Please model this.
Amino acid sequence: MPTTLPEVLISEDRIRVRIAELAGQISRDYGDRDEIVMVGVLKGAFIFLADLARAMTIPRRVDFMGLSSYGRGGAQQSGVRLVMDLRESIEGQHVLVVEDIVDTGHTLHYLLDTLFARHPASLKACALVQKRSRTVADVSIDYLGFEIPDRWVVGFGLDYKDRFRTLPYIGTITPDE
Ligand code: 5GP
Model:
């Protein structure tokens, strides 16, 4: 386990500004909808979702899904598993998936497929960060916070062995395996 604090990649200030921008954009885009359902992906998205949802100005509900994938950086599609489902039906609802990170994109792809099969009125995706150079799955991210290099990142919900999630910035570490 690394003992030093992760090196800052994206500061707390930059994240705050970007989340406010995304919340404004989403609120404008969905301005004429009665309500949207924000689906957060546990555990990593809980902090991003909390800040994003509170910065938005349109009626919104929040629900969560738990997924598990194996291996560093996830996620062959076959390795993604649903471990906790939504509480409410999304049929006929405007759904915005909120992800912490898109790496290969297999997790988001699985999630969008799964939710699409439940007949939402619309389905979009928002992610805090993306390692675009590693994304191989055919996914489109409608709202993206930051593109990042191929490094292991922690903080703002993201972990390494379940640590560093509450770090207020996004930092990089070198995994010790
Ligand atoms: P995917 O490859 O399916 O896009 O991402 C699978 C999962 O791997 C992500 O949801 C996330 O849990 C994890 N992951 C990939 N890259 C990183 C990273 O740099 N940091 C952390 N904390 N998790 C990552």
Q: What stands out?
A: Residues 12-71+78-151 form a domain with the Rossmann fold fold (CATH 3.40.50.2020).
